[in-house]
Design brief:
Layout lengths: L3 E8 L4 E5 L27 H8 L3 E6 L33 H8 L5 E6 L5 H7 L2 E4 L19 E6 L2 H11 L14 E5 L5 H13 L3 E5 L4 H24 L6 H10 L4 H23 L3 E5 L26 H5 L3 E4 L11 E4 L5 H15 L4 E2 L2 E2 L9
Parallel strand pairs: 2-3, 2-4, 7-8, 7-9
Antiparallel strand pairs: 1-3, 4-6, 5-6, 5-10, 9-11, 10-11, 12-13
């Protein structure tokens, strides 16, 4: 399946978990899916989130593959191997947290941790038919996570069910509390964004079936935020990976994209900073009138593996997710398929710091709409949280 980069057996006999190979595990190298890091020295201490999981009695079963250097949307990795999307084997697993999504979808674990800089949890969650949360920026510690510096990246869980996702958040984010009570009827702001008609049909049908109040919302800086987010990603990823590219060991497609990223200039970065501030305010204003915003996770179903060799051509997979990395708002992808049975995902976005409420809303909608993860090719069985 090419899912696990390093098998492990650490911790107690609690819930099984895997982590993306950008998170440090003491005694093991953090390779980030790259031949340029094949001989990296073992980490000397656990990433903070790994330490929290182990201290809470969880059982760490492995580190997962990813799109090389977490810089890609498809999950295709010629050196480390491309994780199998078990629900749709001819489709990409999504990137960059491809292995973490694939591990949950394959039924290897109920929870896996990924990272999300421009959609890298939500995109693979949607592609593989599982749940995936990008928390509020800064809500979960990034200590011991590659890259060491980022103004966009978030550590978060991918899971086979909402209860498992919430259980993971309650461990990795120590201030994550109980899910709050919700009003009898929610106000859901349906974002006016471009997506394939079949994708929108699936999303509209799901939202209409929810029984909640639906309001149409337009964010006029949405496209600007998408491009501004890429500018920030380009500068920060090039800064983190320049030395690795210069070794000549990074795969040609990723190296080419990184060299292109290096040409992002100061004008683009200054403009991105302005868009970040304005777009974040736009989202806050929209959420003043709504409990949550809703939109597709993917604009269209994930491409077939045979059509996705050009990672640059697939960057549009992040068109509907990256803006919320720039703004810092928490966003979650719920498993949702179109009429043809292909995954597209339902994305929900809440106020910054309101991760518990976002999860409560996601859980209500998942229950009402019978949205279940596809694990090992079949709907996931109900989960009963274990006590330890």
């Amino acid at each position: 399946m090419n899912i696990v980069s390093q098998p492990l057996s650490l911790g107690a006999d609690g819930p099984a978990v895997m982590v993306k190979d950008t998170l440090d595990v003491a005694g093991y190298a953090t390779r980030a899916g790259s031949r340029a890091l094949a001989d990296a020295a073992p980490a000397t201490r656990h990433a903070e989130v790994v330490q929290r999981l182990l201290a809470a009695g969880w059982h760490l079963r492995g580190k997962t593959h990813l799109h090389e250097l977490a810089f890609g949307t498809t999950g295709i990795n010629p050196w480390a191997g491309t994780p199998l999307n078990s629900g749709w084997p001819d489709r990409v697993p999504g990137g960059s947290s491809s292995g973490s999504a694939a591990a949950v979808a394959a039924g290897l674990v109920g929870v896996a941790l990924g990272t999300d800089t421009g959609g890298s949890i939500r995109v693979p969650a949607a592609c593989c038919g599982v749940f995936g949360l990008k928390p509020t920026f800064g809500r979960v510690s990034r200590e011991g996570v590659l890259p060491r510096h980022s103004t966009l990246d978030c550590v978060g869980p991918l899971a086979a069910s909402m209860p498992e996702l919430v259980a993971a958040m309650q461990v990795i984010a120590p201030d994550f509390g109980a899910l709050p009570a919700l009003p009898e009827r929610l106000r859901i702001g349906v974002l006016d964004v471009p997506a394939q008609p079949g994708t929108w049909q699936a999303v509209h049908q799901a939202l209409q079936a929810s029984g909640e109040t639906l309001l149409l919302v337009h964010l006029r800086r949405f496209a600007e935020a998408y491009h501004a987010g890429l500018s920030v990603i380009n500068v920060e990823t090039w800064s983190a990976c320049q030395a690795l590219v210069e070794t000549g060991l990074v795969a040609p497609d990723v190296a080419a994209r990184l060299r292109h990223a290096s040409r992002t200039d100061d004008i683009a970065i200054k403009a991105a900073a302005a868009v970040r501030r304005l777009f974040a305010a736009d989202v806050d204003q929209a959420l003043a009138d709504c409990d949550v915003l809703a939109l597709p996770t993917l604009p269209e179903p994930p491409p077939r593996l045979s059509q996705a060799a050009d990672t640059g051509a697939s960057v549009g997979m992040t068109a509907l997710v990256r803006p919320f990395n720039l703004s810092g708002h928490p966003a979650i992808s719920l498993p949702l398929c179109n009429a043809q049975g292909l995954p597209v995902g339902l994305q929900l976005v809440a106020l910054r710091g309101d991760d518990e409420r976002l999860c409560a809303i996601a859980q209500r909608l998942s229950e009402r709409l019978h949205l279940t993860a596809i694990t090992n090719g079949v709907p996931h069985a109900d989960f009963e949280p274990a006590t330890h």
